[in-house]
Amino acid sequence: MTVTSLVTALIVTAVPDYQSLLDQMQVEQDIPGVSAVVTYKNKVYFAGASGLADIESGREMSADTVMYAGSLTKIMTAAMTLRLINNGKLALTDDVPGISNGTGNVNIFHLLTHTSGLDREGDFGYWFSADFPDASALDRYLINTELHSPPGEASRYSNIGYAALGAVIERVTGDGYGSALHAQLFEPLNMNASGAPGPGPEVARGYSPIGRVIPTEERPFAGVGNRVGDRHLREYHNARAMTPAFGAYTTANDMAEFVQFLLGFGPHDVLPDELRRQMLAPKEFGRGLGLRSGRLNDHRVARHDGWFAAHRSHLLLDLEANVGIVVLANSDNAAPALIAEALLAATLDIESGTQ
Questions:
Q1: No. of H helices and E strands in the chain?
Q2: Domain locations in the chain?
Q3: Pure H helices in the chain
Q4: pTM, rounded to two decimals
Q5: What is the pLDDT of residues 107-116, one digit of tens each?
Q6: CATH class of the domain whose range is 3-348
Q7: Dihedral through CA 224, CA 227, CA 229, CA 230, nearest 10?
């Protein structure tokens, strides 16, 4: 497929086909609502939604509906970290004090690539209690914890590691994480509806799957709210010190700006291309800086899942076709990666007429 034919086909046919596909998958996955965006280079070829943001009120989902980004927040944290590196405030090789009594020599690169040896969640149990640690509790945990492996020697996905990275950002900038995120990333990218920490303004309600058995008071699960039909609300929203790992909120339209930036078609004063490309290039254990690297449709891709407060998300970048996709859904049973892959396949199949 040539670039010219892809652009021409997208202009003529993309939007109605994307909408039909999104409607179909919202029904097939039996989720209340979903929003999505598809970009090609510096153009947005689809931004839309299907279903409901709030079942009780009947509020419809749209590309401007505020949703929780979940672990897509990690990509934002990584981009902020690299911006501070570019400004001379940090270096990838800087040791991070206050982890494992300094015995591990964990550095910024280790935190970015999930190779620090830190645990995934620590010992906080917040997915059951909804009691997320504050900065003091996180600091106490970090200094007393033992690493699972020496830094740089193994890959272990770590929410705690990105929370620690957020603490570094706060220390270097002198701002809270949310303020730093706005100043360093959201404002220059014109992501005006995005923020952290939650709750986000008029955020979509998050729901359990239909028929999901909710644990009893003796076996609680975080954030379970009132019953709504055959579902339950999920209502916790402020991740406190864990916000840099999974606590930001955003919209599909705002995420269009973010994926264009990641692909090199956004403002060039946010990050130099060399540093931006480092985010996407696979390093130790197949990870970039904040994203996973791999192949799909025989193309190089970078991607990440997200989950928080019953909102599920997926960001998918086709690095060869310069297509960026983000899907945001408001139910625990959503499979946004499958929706993102279907949207990408539809984009790549336009020329052959196989949509």
A1: 11, 12
A2: 3-348
A3: 3-28, 72-86, 108-112, 126-129, 135-144, 159-173, 177-181, 243-246, 252-262, 273-280, 336-348
A4: 0.93
A5: 999 999 999 9
A6: alpha beta
A7: 50
